Amino acid sequence: MTGFGTTNLPYGVFQPAGASPRVGVAVEDLVLDLSVLLDSPGEFAQSSLNAFLAQGRPRWQEVRRFVMTRVAQGVGAHQDGVYRARDVTVLMPLEVADFVDFFSGIEHATNMGYILRPEDKDPLKPNYRHLPVGYHGRAGTVLPSGVAIVRPLGQVSTADGVALRASRRLDIEVELGYVIGVPSRLGEAVPISAFRDHVFGVVILIDWSARDIQAWEYQPLGPFLAKSFGTTISPWVLPLDALDDGGWADGPVQDPAVLPYLRDTEPRNPAIVLEVELNGTLLSRPNATRLYWSPAQQLAHMTRNGASLRTGDLFGTGTISSSEPDGMGSLMEISWGGTKKIELADGTSRTFLEDGDEVVLRAAIAGDPGRSLGEARARILPAPAE
User: Fold this and answer.
1) Active-site entry in 78, 108, 130, 301
2) Which helix (H) or strand (E) holds 197?
3) Does the pTM exceed 0.85?
4) Do 68 and 33 form a contact (C-beta atoms < 8 A)?
5) Tens digit of each residue's pLDDT, the chain (386 residues)
6) Among candidates 75, 68, 81, which has minimal Cα distance to 9?
């Protein structure tokens, strides 16, 4: 899942050698400089996508039509404004304004319920099927692919009491993230019907989770230090329009029926297949079609109280998972709470991440390598001295 085909055309920020950052579009092994091709430096000679994102869907569609026409005519590295991908540095694609993460994978929620609360008859909390559960994360620690993750320190509960120590149960969660382009006004909810007026596109997202820190701190207000130390996103943002050709799928039946403001039509979920790799070993292939809550439902719920959107807001799906190990989206699930060893190709085994481990998350529409979203990757560094 590595190639950017001629229909995906994701947007990002890149820097040629000896030049300033600018906005580009990736196609196959090339990057197109939009500031040159569209002769619009004020819009595209920028270090983030935010100025372009804020202009709204008519402009997004206009630029995409231009790029598709230009690509159909033929582009090559010998042309002005066209670079080989290997000759440029790809940077963080946007300035993240706010970050919200959801819990919309029902298989993940079910698996976690069985692992953490085996005595409960129902692994899901009573509210799960009524609203998209979420939490407000930390925008300042959303990081681009390739930036290392430092193992976090935090309070944990031990047999001897409470201690401050490095997490020993560092985990990943396989997600997608949605990027807001057009803001909304404070006090006005964004309905499901306006989803595509506000959301520009989708990225791959790794939600890093310190399970032992989380177990002690999360009650009653949810995650804090266990997740705020880092979130990794892919450097290329796939526009929603790239999903229009077979990129959406029906979601699971929602029972009981949801409240009117959450009613979404089918198909409602992205038909995106992900691959999670640890030190070169493919662990699983989660499928985003299984998410219980759609991105439009997440957005509608996130703003139902009048909370406003800002250009550059990012919201994550929550862990995309399965009831089967080959589709599970976290080590917590694959190792079943640390009770099962995960065997790697190098002869070692894991339950949770160790220092030096490298995680790579890839994704593609319908699993088609030619319709890739690229990848998000990071290596684990040791914790700072306690």
Assistant:
1) 108
2) helix 195-198
3) yes
4) no
5) 447 999 999 999 999 999 999 999 999 999 999 999 999 999 999 999 999 999 999 999 999 999 999 999 999 988 999 999 999 999 999 999 999 999 999 999 999 999 999 999 899 999 999 999 999 999 999 999 999 999 999 999 999 999 999 999 999 999 999 999 999 999 999 999 999 999 999 999 999 999 999 999 998 888 999 999 999 999 999 999 999 999 999 999 999 999 999 999 999 999 999 999 999 999 999 999 999 999 999 999 999 999 999 999 999 999 999 999 999 999 999 999 999 999 999 999 999 999 999 999 999 999 999 999 999 999 999 999 87
6) 68
Annotation says 78 is catalytic: no
Tokens representing 323?
């009831």
Query: What is the Cβ-side half-sphere exposure of residue 370, based on CA atoms within 13 angstroms?
Result: 3
**Domains of the chain by start residue, with CATH:** 11-89 (2.30.30.230), 99-381 (3.90.850.10)
